[in-house]
Amino acid sequence: MSASNDPNSQPEGNAAKDPEDWVTGDEQMTGAQASYLKTLSEEAGEKFDDSLTKAEASKRIDELQHETGRGIDH
Q: Taking the model in full, what pTM does it have?
């Protein structure tokens, strides 16, 4: 396998994909997402929605990170 075909040689990988393009984006959010989203929601004074999909949770996490300043490199 050449380096250009090796997924480990490409630092952006799936993490850089838009959540709308995730194959599993419509599945229930992961436990890690739920835990972090609950923390962010509490810090932002907003209601935690436990019914989000993986893709929805990812977008909400991004929104709340910007709102709270948590998890963002300055």
A: 0.69
